[in-house]
Design goal:
Blueprint lengths: L4 E5 L23 E5 L1 H4 L4 H11 L15 H4 L18 E3 L1 H7 L4 E5 L9 H17 L6 E5 L3 H13 L3 E6 L5 H9 L3 E5 L3 H14 L2 E3 L5 H7 L1 H9 L7 E5 L4 H15 L8 E7 L4 H7 L26 H10 L3 E5 L1 H12 L7 H15 L9 E5 L7 H8 L22 H12 L1
Parallel strand pairs: 4-12, 5-6, 5-8, 6-7, 9-10, 9-12, 10-11
Antiparallel strand pairs: 1-2, 3-4
């Protein structure tokens, strides 16, 4: 079957644009674009046939179909030739039960979608494999591009650098100097990217990279480029597939630049349109209190975006005050009866540590989502009978300083960590070790 997709304006302006065209905004109104699929053609294959195909490809050893993204090739980038796919078997991540946390919150089935176990350690791989693969095909067909560039608070730069290196394409990364973790900084350096550390915040980096894309022949890799969101929407498809095509009652996801929630919504909408599921979940977007323009809009009955000067937060990857995908996020939340919640620094740190007691190693951004779930449960909006999925966006291994600081009580914003677990220093004597162990286990 011949499946197709194209860019179209989210505001409904007439006209479509090929996915190989270098275009990021509607030339008529300046609004963002989105990828629109030929749903009528996709419906020619039954829902059961799609389920069978996706099951056959799930974690397959046949590359690239074992990828969580490329196993859904027809729903993502149907005109992309397989020979141009740049994949590291991203996605296919675990939906991990957290029964201890669920009991503490008075809830039933709570699971964490572990997107951070992907190749570069975050959900950004899911979008970057699509974007870099599309660019590889564009270059092979004669498009002149000097590099792929992004502004980043860490995870986007790691994903871009890894996939661009695999494709043999130059990558340019623009970071806010001193505002990302060491692990996040070293990832693009190790992959050979040109890293430019700018004395500004993420929003300032975003302004610069958009100008470079307009003027200097580099291809923009941030989430305002809807190719990224096509890969990220597979999180929703995986969640449904891993639940035997049953949609959870709630999905909680952290939000910064807000491409992730619009991608999540797009994935569930596609499942619904093609008959693989029969309803939508409710969605909660969780923001750090120090960077919460979406929350401010929500509390004001979805008022227009009022950009903020984001303040420093432990959840550095979502320290964004002027989110590019605001309009898409609001549209998704309205369609999914969505809510927005915030977390203080202490709340996100304690929530992250409490979830780790179920064997996780959560990043601070996942802590924001977990803190939001804690609040929703406390006021009875999420109840015991509800199935809940929390999207974990990155590996906690990228934020070792956050973890160490918490358990050593060295985070100024968290003066009294509720779940601190410090080592016990002992002399080299059996009786001292035995006594300490027995006291702890008693």
């Amino acid at each position: 079957m011949a499946f197709t997709a194209e860019f179209r304006c989210i505001a409904g302006c007439a006209g479509g644009y090929a996915l190989e065209q270098v275009i990021y905004r509607c030339p008529r109104c300046g609004d963002l674009l989105e990828v629109v699929h030929d749903v009528a053609a996709l419906r020619e294959r039954s829902a059961e046939a799609w389920k069978a195909l996706f099951a056959e490809r799930w974690r397959s050893v046949d590359e690239p179909w074992g990828s969580g993204v490329w196993g859904k090739h027809e729903w993502v980038a149907p005109q992309l030739e397989a020979r141009h796919v740049v994949s590291m078997l991203e996605g296919g991540t675990h939906l991990t039960p957290v029964p201890r946390l669920a009991r503490a919150l008075g809830l039933g089935d709570v699971r964490v979608k572990q997107c951070g176990t992907s190749h570069s350690g975050s959900f950004k791989d899911l979008g970057m494999t699509v974007l870099v693969s599309q660019v590889a095909q564009m270059i092979a067909r004669g498009t002149q591009l000097r590099a792929i560039a992004c502004a980043s608070t860490g995870d986007t730069s790691a994903a871009l650098a890894a996939y661009a290196a695999a494709a043999g394409i130059r990558a340019v990364v623009i970071l806010p100097r001193g505002k990302i973790s060491t692990a996040q900084l070293v990832q693009p350096l190790a992959a050979g990217a040109l890293v430019l550390a700018i004395d500004t915040d993420f929003d300032g980096c975003m302004r610069i990279v958009q100008d470079l894309a307009d003027r200097e022949g580099v291809y923009l890799a941030n989430s305002m480029n809807s190719l990224r969101l096509e890969g990220q929407k597979t999180v929703a498809i995986e969640i449904a597939q891993q639940r035997h095509w049953r949609v959870p009652d709630w999905v909680v996801i952290p939000g910064g630049n807000l491409g992730n929630v619009s991608a999540l919504g797009a994935g569930f909408e596609m499942l619904l349109a093609l008959g693989l599921v029969d309803r939508r979940p409710r969605i909660c977007v969780a923001q750090a209190e120090h960077a919460s323009p979406l929350y401010a809009s929500y509390k004001a009955n979805w008022a227009p975006l009022a950009p903020q000067k984001a303040r420093p937060t432990l959840a550095s990857a979502i320290q964004i005050g002027n989110p590019v995908s605001f309009a898409k996020a609001v549209r998704a939340l309205r369609a999914f009866d969505g809510v927005v919640e915030i977390a203080t620094e202490a709340e996100l740190a304690d929530a992250s540590a409490r979830a780790d007691l179920d064997g996780l190693f959560t990043c601070p951004h996942t802590g924001v989502a977990l803190a939001a779930l804690t609040k929703l449960a406390a006021r009875g909006e999420v109840r015991r009978e509800h199935d809940v999925v929390v999207v974990s966006t990155a590996s906690g291994l990228k934020f070792a300083d956050f973890k160490v600081g918490y358990h050593e009580a060295r985070l100024p914003a968290v003066p009294a960590p509720a779940h601190r677990n410090a080592p016990i220093d002992l002399p080299d004597r059996y009786d001292a070790v035995r006594d300490a162990m027995l006291r702890a286990l008693d």
